[in-house]
């Protein structure tokens, strides 16, 4: 029987215990994050979450052990790949996702990095003074020149298309142009809570997405209940107001006098009389003549 180092057993035991003692367990990618920046990110999350980095094989074993107490937790194994870490927390998965997104920042590109978007420059002046820099820029395909004693880019140009690797010589120049095309940070791949596995595609939604959906649903439900005159505690007051307005309009249209509409009917009759008088020749009433 193969000997298993005691430190590995301790790591698995501690990790499995953390997984079973927190509401949420998540797998995050740490690929490409410089060590110093990663430590800073971990420190920023320490108040609300624990970030553990170890071998993927040990994470796999810990998930198997923890799943004995938390059924379904083993489904997280599908997210364990490459450079990753385990997060245990009591934050809900959506808040955790937003917290991790907040750790991300712009970073220089390294040789061979895949451009997440087109890397471009715009025509115009640069902060560089004339000198060897012009040749260095031209060497990596940047249309640089000197105009009026200043280094300028002569035209707009896409240096690297989205999805293409960044050449090594260009990667060295981009930071000097203050172009940081890469984004580094803790990238949440999947989270498990209460028997449910949440993928990145589910968690990557705006913070107000569901509240806006609920608000829209409430407005639509109210509009529908008003349209079909469905009585509820929320609709009874506006329905009575609507019924009153419609009854008033009908009584005025039918010239049916009530204590509520008599003034409106008299005003309407007076306006109709005045309109008729304007079209009638030979009026004898001086008061009516003055009115019209």
Structure commentary:
With 292 residues, the protein is an alpha+beta fold. The chain has three domains: 6-104 and 185-205, 2-Layer Sandwich (Alpha-Beta Plaits); 119-180, Alpha-Beta Complex (Molybdopterin biosynthesis moea protein, domain 2); 211-291, no CATH class. Helix content is 42%, strand content 17%. It is built from eleven helices and twelve strands. The protein has helices at residues 6-20, 35-45, 56-66, 93-101, 133-139, 168-173, 200-203, 209-227, 236-253, 262-278, 286-291; strands at residues 24-29, 49-52, 84-89, 105-107, 119-121, 124-125, 144-147, 150-153, 157-160, 182-184, 187-193, 196-199. β11 and β12 form a beta hairpin. The longest helix has 19 residues, at 209-227. The model has no long low-confidence stretch (mean pLDDT 89).
């Amino acid at each position: 029987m193969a000997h298993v180092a005691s430190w590995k057993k301790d790591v698995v035991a501690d990790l499995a215990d953390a997984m079973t003692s927190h509401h949420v367990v998540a797998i995050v990618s740490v690929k490409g994050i410089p060590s110093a920046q990663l430590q800073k990110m971990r420190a920023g999350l320490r108040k609300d979450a624990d970030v553990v980095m170890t071998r993927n094989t040990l994470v796999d074993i810990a998930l198997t052990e923890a799943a004995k107490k938390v059924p379904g937790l083993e489904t997280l194994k599908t997210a364990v790949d490459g450079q990753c870490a385990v997060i245990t927390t009591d934050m809900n998965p959506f808040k955790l996702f937003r917290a991790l997104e907040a750790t991300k920042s712009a970073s220089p590109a390294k040789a061979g990095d895949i451009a997440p978007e087109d890397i471009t420059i715009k025509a115009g002046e640069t902060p560089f003074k004339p000198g060897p820099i012009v040749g260095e820029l031209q060497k990596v395909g940047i249309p640089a020149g000197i105009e009026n004693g200043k280094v300028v880019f002569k035209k707009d140009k896409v240096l690297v298309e989205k999805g293409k690797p960044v050449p090594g010589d260009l990667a060295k120049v981009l930071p000097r142009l203050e172009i940081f095309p890469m984004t580094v940070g803790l990238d949440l791949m999947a989270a498990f809570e209460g028997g449910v596995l949440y993928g990145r595609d589910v968690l990557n939604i705006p913070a107000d997405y569901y509240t806006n959906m609920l608000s829209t649903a409430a407005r639509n439900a109210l509009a529908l209940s008003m349209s079909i005159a469905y009585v509820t505690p929320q609709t009874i007051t506006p329905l009575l107001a609507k019924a009153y307005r419609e009854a008033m309009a009908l009584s005025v249209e039918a010239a049916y006098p009530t204590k509520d509409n008599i003034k409106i009917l008299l005003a309407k009759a007076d306006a109709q009389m005045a309109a008729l008088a304007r079209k009638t020749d030979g009026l004898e009433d001086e008061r009516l003549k003055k009115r019209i």
